[in-house]
Specification:
Helix content: 10-25%
Number of helices: 9
Bound molecules: adenosine-5'-triphosphate, magnesium ion
Number of strands: 19
Distance between the termini: 26 Å
Radius of gyration: 25 Å
CATH superfamily of the largest domain: P-loop containing nucleotide triphosphate hydrolases
Largest sheet: 6 strands, mixed
CATH class of the largest domain: Alpha Beta
Structural class: alpha+beta
Low-confidence stretches: none
Mean pLDDT: 91
Number of domains: 2
CATH topology of the largest domain: Rossmann fold
Order of helices and strands: HEEEHEEEHHHEHEHEEHHEEEEEEEEE
Length: 366
């Protein structure tokens, strides 16, 4: 990232590091620039530093090194309540002794708004999350999903420019979670709010975000829009973490500008797209998405490389068929095919040929 890009961001992490114990860095040299109105998701495994980043932005933790800017200004010395940031955290509970209306009134009172102005804003925020009828209830009289909506309304009621959400839907069932994902992105876009959203659910990240920052071990491994992240993972970690992925282990035996030749440990040789291999002799994991593999002989695209495979399992999933194969010694090779009338249904034990295009096969780090 150039300094110009950095300055353009509404939220900027500039070489930010964080250590809690003075020894280990849980955030290592974070550079991240978030545009105004952008929906950015931090995605990563447990302990990768996502919440820590949000806490530093919110002002509940301080960076050990580097600087965080909001609207072009450093915020290191601004206390949390003066940063104008709305927050929804999984365990950031509503005040139990207050009604819904009082919960929403609180952030407005803190900001010194008068009664009639507060009431108008409260009702508008509740309408946004379709909870207008619940203004006099207490949190204990609401379902988990309703409480989550109120928490969202409370974060939005003072019309912040920036909202931070840390796993806000973790406690909800699948159906409600999907509904709320839609509601949150709709509200964020309609209101033009900049959102930093934390999750370890990759589907949630892919469906909600303008861009996703994939965290691992205190570093951003890749920062890209969802489709790029899924289609063009930059390394093995991202390929494995985002979506389902097939991996075959081998070695680079030829290197050209736009392709390389890989020899698998079992001797199989084929072309791949070199992503982060650089020279002959590099060990590599080649990565192929399950939906890019074809086993219908008459549908194999021209130029496809074919391999022998044994069917281990064939699962009917309604909209798709999910087939588990043994390919080049890998017993977990998955192929997904759309359920169509002419789609071949396979039997366990069948010996078949599978194929894929070289450009769908990415040679990544080992
Ligand atoms: N207050 C704290 N004091 C000391 N260490 C902490 C503190 N908070 C977090 N850590 C450590 O910092 C690292 C990053 O934690 P963080 O909470 O940022 O991870 P996370 O990505 O949010 O994980 P999760 O998905 O489990 O919520 C972890 O190793 C964690 O143990
Ligand atoms: Mg966390």
């Amino acid at each position: 990232m150039t300094s110009e890009d950095l300055n353009d961001g509404f939220v900027v992490f500039d070489r930010v590091q964080k250590s809690y114990d003075g020894e280990t860095l849980v955030v290592k040299d974070l550079n991240l620039s978030i545009g105004k109105g952008e929906f950015l998701t931090m995605l990563g495994p447990s302990g990768s530093g996502k919440t820590t980043c949000l806490m530093m932005l919110a002002g509940f933790e301080t960076a050990t090194h580097g600087e965080i800017l909001l609207g072009g200004k450093p915020i290191n010395d601004i206390p949390p309540h003066k940063r104008g940031i709305g927050m929804v955290f999984q365990n950031y509970a509503l005040f139990p002794h207050m009604t819904v209306g009082e919960n929403l009134s609180f952030p407005l009172e803190v900001r010194g708004l008068g009664k009639s102005e507060r009431e108008a804003k409260i009702m508008r925020a509740l309408e946004m999350v379709q909870m207008g009828a619940f203004v006099n209830r207490r949190p204990a009289q609401l379902s988990g999903g309703q409480q989550q909506r109120i928490a969202l309304a409370r974060a939005l009621v003072f019309e912040p420019e920036l909202v931070l959400m840390d796993e806000p839907l973790g406690a909800l069932d699948k159906q409600l979670r999907e509904h709320m994902q839609f509601e949150i992105t709709r509200l964020a876009h309609d209101l033009g709010i900049t959102t930093v959203y934390v999750t370890h659910d990759q589907t949630e990240a892919l469906t909600m975000s303008d861009r996703v920052a994939v965290f691992d071990d205190g570093r951003i491994q890749q920062l890209d829009p969802p489709a790029v992240l899924y289609e063009e993972p930059k390394n093995s970690f991202v390929a494995q973490f985002i979506g389902e992925n097939n991996t075959l282990v081998g070695e680079v035996v030829e290197m050209h500008a736009d392709k390389c030749v890989v020899r698998l440990d079992d001797g199989e040789i084929f072309d791949a797209k070199p992503v982060n291999v650089t020279r002959v002799g590099d060990k590599t994991r080649v990565s192929i998405r399950p939906e890019r593999v074809e086993y219908n002989p008459d549908r194999l695209p021209e130029g496809a490389h074919t391999l022998h495979a044994e069917v281990l399992e064939f699962i009917y999933m309604g909209d798709i068929f999910r087939t588990r194969l043994r390919v080049a010694g890998n017993d977990e090779f998955i192929v997904k095919t759309r359920n169509a009338p002419d789609q071949v249904r396979l039997e366990p034990g069948a010996q078949i040929e599978i194929g894929w295009l070289p450009q769908d096969c990415r040679a990544l780090d080992a």
